[in-house]
Amino acid sequence: MSMKVNSNNNVVIMAGGVGSRFWPMSTTAYPKQFIDVFGTGRTFLQMTYDRFKGLVEPENVWVVTSKQYADIVAEQLPDMPRENILLEPCRRNTAPCIAYVSWRIKSKNPKANLVVTPSDHLVTDVVEFQRVISSALRFTSETDAIVTLGMPPTRPETGYGYIQADMQVPSLRNKEVYRVDSFKEKPDLETAKKYLKEKEFFWNSGIFVWSVNTIVNSLRIYQPEISRIFEDLLPYYGTDKEQAMIDQQFPLCESISIDYAVMEKAYEIFVIPANFGWSDVGTWGSLHTLAEKDDHGNTVIGQNVKLYESRNCVIHTTEEKKVVVQGLDGYIVAEKGDTLLVCKLEEEQRIKEFSAE
Amino acid sequence: MSMKVNSNNNVVIMAGGVGSRFWPMSTTAYPKQFIDVFGTGRTFLQMTYDRFKGLVEPENVWVVTSKQYADIVAEQLPDMPRENILLEPCRRNTAPCIAYVSWRIKSKNPKANLVVTPSDHLVTDVVEFQRVISSALRFTSETDAIVTLGMPPTRPETGYGYIQADMQVPSLRNKEVYRVDSFKEKPDLETAKKYLKEKEFFWNSGIFVWSVNTIVNSLRIYQPEISRIFEDLLPYYGTDKEQAMIDQQFPLCESISIDYAVMEKAYEIFVIPANFGWSDVGTWGSLHTLAEKDDHGNTVIGQNVKLYESRNCVIHTTEEKKVVVQGLDGYIVAEKGDTLLVCKLEEEQRIKEFSAE
Fold first, then answer.
1. Which positions ≥6 away from B236 have C-beta within 8 Å?
2. DSSP per residue over B7-21, as a string?
3. How far apart are CA B356 and CA B353, in angstroms?
């Protein structure tokens, strides 16, 4: 059975991050989303693109990234039109990024219906992911709803923001959609444990679904200055003046996240609790948890690695590298280009310190 | 005061080893003697050459090595004539090597007086080294003696051969020269401890001093087949046919060490006990012992290495490499080209196993 793809469906992949917690594998020059972290042959960006196949046409896939990554994106996603790579001249957090791409898409198709997603997360159950995304897109095509995807927590994670849902009454229109009560910032451990016990808290996956009109109108209301900037550029979108105008105007935007800019202010906010094997793979430890392990709990990514008397390690090297590791328990050994890290997994929160010049 | 260099003095540097215990820093393609192990800017071969300055003219320095290392030697010792690099077409241990170079030198100067030395050892007190070598050369210029240099042991080392001296009566001609009673192979620990207590046992440094006539005559007596091969090549030495003849004849030699071939058979064998800060730097552990250490007992060779909570480690990397090591105690971290080793220092005897393809 072949499904007709709804041509209003668009996906926005935000790929401007610098992935500093995965140093030295991830560097500013070549951050995490562009790396084949699991050694499967596909990078995070490519896996993100892949999981929308059949839901979104390639010409409706948009990637927003920094100028310096334009060629990497084009190389990794050759099926997507080059003009769908939108280039930020500087980093201004997610609200200006989403504002830009939203007006850009609206200028092409005012009926567009959008999924906004990070580029560097993992989804293991893509069938369920597509079912949930389809359900959300149906919902936002018929409503003015802002929909978030909430992940049922499996541990008292202090590294994520949480969404508190009103679980009393689901939407009449879609039984898996609930109203959001509030957004919670990264909690301390005690609070995270409380969230885990109650059934109304979900990890904020950073995946949003909305119609282009809904997000544009929300931005107009809650972020009028940012909105004016991108509204004023309407004559230039899709022309050869677009980049020059963006280069001029984008830096004038306030640096603010979409969560602060819109989500925490708007009323029609919903959450779909969803269970499709999601992880932000934000740390070496989470990679260790998610990736395949040998009998001794070692995750080895690299073609020519030999381990002796080692356990619970993550070894990540470039394919050409011959590596011998003996007698390590609970370490990261990561090598890329001219950089080598050997570090206890339990100390990985210090990697930013280690990587500082 | 400038000293007139005795133009009969020659030094033979044996540089054909493959240094497998220092993998991955030392590889068959680029073994230990050609590496700046201490990060001082001079390789073992260059340091070996340097310590004969003022004793031997550059045109009387000879290096015997494998064909594949000819260009490395020429590059590292540019002052030495290229024709003084003698090339073995295959490995036949030290006796054929010494036979070849001895006849080669004899063909040029029958009065030559020789020091034979490994190329990959360390000497820290070069002034004392030169004094001892001068004393030995004086002795062998006046006698038919085979002189070895014996290092007073400082620990019950099981990795070296030992020389047992007759310490009763020194030579009348030179008060620091004693007769050798016997050569001892690498002992077990118990025996090594016994040797350490008694005062007549010395480490065999592998440094020999003799006149060219003495060694040629000894080889004629004890190794007539090997001798005949190199004697027969006398018409070709120094001609453009030399290498072709060596390539043809050298492989016919028995593979045998000079110790077995001559030293253990000959009568006029002497030892000079000498204390000039010698080490064969045969292992990562000995490098760790000899090289400079930080306050936590770490030896770091490499320009861009950061250590956190680490102690008693040896870190050896190429200069371009940025390395961060956290939380290691008693490890080797060695990186060269496309190879990385992380291994407990106490397990370093397994490096041959680790490095096997």
1. B242, B245
2. TTEEEEEE-----GG
3. 5
Q: Do A326 and B350 touch (CB under 8 A)?
A: yes
ipTM entry: 0.79
- With CA atoms as reference, the chain B residue closest to A324 would be B341
pTM (predicted TM-score): 0.82
Q: Give per-residue pLDDT as tens, B176-212.
A: 999 999 999 999 999 999 999 999 999 999 999 999 9
State whether B340 and A324 contact (CB < 8 Å). yes
Q: How far is A20 from chain B (nearest CA, A)?
A: 15
Neighbours of A247 (CB within 10 A): 14
Alpha helices per DSSP H over chain A: 44-50, 70-76, 94-108, 126-142, 189-197, 212-222, 224-232, 242-249, 258, 284-290, 351-355
**Nearest-Cα residue of chain B relative to residue A304:** B339
In the predicted model, residues of chain B with pLDDT beneath 70 are 1-3, 319, 357
* Nearest-angstrom CA–CA distance, B156 and B150: 15
SS3 for B290?
helix
Closest C-alpha among A256, A260, A229 to residue A245: A229
What span, in angstroms and rounded, lies between the C-alpha atoms of A115 and B36?
57
**From the candidates A317, A333, A340, which should be mutated to test the interface with B, based on the most B CB atoms within 10 A?**
A340
Q: How far is CA B42 from the centre of its chain?
A: 16
- Cβ atoms within 10 Å of B107's Cβ, excluding its own: 18
Q: CA A132, CA B39: separation in Å to the nearest integer?
A: 59
CA proximity to B33, closest of B50, B21, B10, B16: B16
**Contact B341/A324, CB-based, under 8 Å?**
yes
Backbone angles phi, psi at A331, to 5 degrees: -120, 155
> Quick check: B300 and B315 in contact, CB under 8 A?
yes
